[in-house]
């Protein structure tokens, strides 16, 4: 494996096996994660992602099978659609996080907390409510609407949370356009904001889903476009062109860095890129790795 590919994708997959489309039971997802940690997949494996409502059951599994090294967990909160449900959800989530840490803190740490904001319009208010949470990494999931850029600016101004962008789902409307996704990438790099993406990213490169009638995004162009935007301050249009690239030959990885079309990024800049794009959530690890191999990228 080249050093550039290793830097770009090290710990890039937050494993979310309990979420669609896999929808595994918690025990199966935990077994998979444990197996990945000790296998050849460990280099690309990041956090284990579960719902806050699953933390009690996860603690039981950890007690039954204590890991040799501490597990990093990212917990997805219950969110809400209005002020009362939002506040109730945060209160319940905080209690679940604290109970989990008290019970199995020796073996697992809540390293991240992810929650969907009720709307983008009042993002600054919702984000202020997260100040009491203790996980070192907080992600606010934002909706794809006209208030997205202002919500990102509110997150950057608070200097507290990163943002989470949903890049797929079970219907065509759940997939943002490349231009929309490019806006998030460019916005995050310009605002100095960390972000993660999730859903619909099982493939290294974009591919057409005939059943849904959409072009699904690929995680290599997303990470590479972020690297280019961080290093070269690209326009949204330039980022979009990279996101739409389906040809592995457009991305040249070496031990010196990465070349994307006409853009060059050295290893040091690739390291800095990962401060911006933290991870992508996926209910599969095997499938992303297999698509890297099929694209001719050496990962062994």
Provide a descriptive summary of the structure in words:
This protein has 300 residues and is α/β, with parallel strands linked by helices. The chain has a single domain, classed as TIM Barrel (Alpha-Beta Barrel), CATH 3.20.20. The chain contains eleven helices and 13 strands. The strands form three sheets. An eight-stranded parallel β-barrel has the order 1-2-3-4-5-6-7-13, surrounded by six helices. It has a three-stranded antiparallel beta sheet with strand order 10-11-12. A two-stranded antiparallel ribbon has the order 8-9.
Can you lay out the helices and strands and say which pair or pack?
Layout: H1 3-9, E1 13-15, H2 26-37, E2 45-51, H3 55-64, E3 71-76, H4 83-104, E4 108-116, H5 123-128, E5 137-141, H6 148-158, E6 162-166, H7 178-191, E7 195-198, E8 207-209, E9 214-216, H8 219-232, H9 236-243, E10 251-253, E11 257-260, E12 263-266, H10 267-276, E13 277-282, H11 286-294
Parallel strand pairs: 1-2, 1-13, 2-3, 3-4, 4-5, 5-6, 6-7, 7-13
Antiparallel strand pairs: 8-9, 10-11, 11-12
For the structure shown, list the relevant keywords.
13 strands, 300 residues, alpha/beta, eight-stranded parallel beta barrel, three-stranded antiparallel β-sheet, single chain, TIM Barrel
């Amino acid at each position: 494996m080249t050093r550039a590919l290793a830097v770009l994708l090290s710990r890039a997959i937050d494993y979310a096996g309990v979420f669609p489309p896999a929808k595994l039971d918690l025990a199966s997802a935990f077994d998979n994660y444990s197996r990945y940690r000790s296998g050849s997949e460990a280099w690309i494996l990041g956090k284990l992602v579960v719902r806050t409502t699953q933390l009690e059951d996860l603690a039981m599994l950890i007690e039954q099978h204590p890991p040799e090294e501490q597990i990093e967990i990212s917990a997805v909160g219950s969110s809400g659609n209005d002020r009362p449900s939002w506040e109730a959800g945060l209160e319940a989530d905080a209690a679940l996080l604290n109970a989990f840490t008290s019970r199995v803190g020796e073996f697992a740490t809540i390293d991240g907390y992810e929650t969907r904001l009720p709307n983008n319009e009042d993002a600054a208010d919702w984000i202020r409510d997260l100040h009491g949470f203790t996980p070192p990494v907080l992600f606010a999931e934002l909706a794809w609407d006209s208030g997205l850029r202002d919500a990102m600016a509110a997150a950057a101004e608070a200097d507290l949370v990163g943002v989470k962008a949903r890049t797929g789902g079970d219907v065509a409307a759940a997939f943002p356009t490349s231009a929309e996704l490019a806006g998030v990438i460019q916005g995050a790099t310009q605002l100095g904001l960390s972000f993660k993406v999730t859903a619909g990213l099982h493939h290294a490169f974009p591919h057409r889903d005939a059943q849904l009638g959409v072009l699904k995004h690929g995680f290599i162009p997303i990470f590479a476009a972020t690297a280019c935007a961080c290093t070269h301050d690209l326009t949204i249009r330039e980022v979009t062109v990279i996101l739409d690239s389906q040809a592995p030959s457009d991305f040249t990885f070496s031990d010196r860095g990465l070349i994307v079309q006409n853009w060059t990024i050295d290893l040091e800049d690739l390291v800095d890129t990962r401060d911006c794009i933290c991870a992508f959530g996926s209910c599969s690890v095997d499938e992303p790795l297999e698509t890297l191999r099929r694209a001719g990228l050496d990962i062994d």
